[in-house]
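User:
Hi there, any thoughts?
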Amino acid sequence: MKHAGGLAYREAAPAASGAPVALLVHGYPESSYMWRGALPALAAAGWRALAPDLPGYGDSPPDSPATWERHVEALERFRSELELERVALVVHDWGGLIGLRWACDHPGAACALVVSDTGFFPDGKWHGMACALRTEGEGEQLVDGLDREGFGAMLAGVSADIGADAADEYWKAYADEERRRGQLELYRSGDFEKLEAYQGRLAALELPALVLWGEEDPFAPVAGAHRFVRELPGAQLAVIPGTGHFVWEDAPEDAAAALVDFLSALRS
């Protein structure tokens, strides 16, 4: 793993220099490992693909307090240290809340958006586990009581395609108390009302966008994908059948193909 701006990251790039950059931001409770299918596909298509581990996930150290805002700052620190100019921003789950907020806070930093199984709406609602993580006492009991076996079973319950190798990588987010507490800090800072100040700002960036979704997502239902398409002028929609919230795990080849087709069209 390489490191920049306090974050560990994975990279795949073509041999030639000067390639356009794709920045991929993972969701919860994953890490940059979730992009293992997309990274080589992007490199083969001529893109320099960078996927950081957010603070406290994968191989990145915690950065307390692990709030939503601090994660946005970490992404900008990563971008600045690598001297990245405009990037194609690819986001999933919490990576969307973090990455899209970053893009709005730094107009001109992104040249395109790929939005996957997330939300960016002030009237958003949290699902069951997220509500538990946001609740004092209940969240502590949840993260402290989970062991590797239970964690693996939890992941298998939402995606049969998250194997032991991926679960081992994602379990790193539970490696110590600071990382576990960081999850609570993130969710407890995740008040959707904060997005009222961002209404219309994502559309105002006027970026080409692909909305890529798992058809059977129980946490961020496909209605959210259609809402993004309505709110982002000219956005394309790709809904992958037979997949859930973890679409990049459930159908990595199909998701990567849709991503590459979209970004390749931008260069033609």
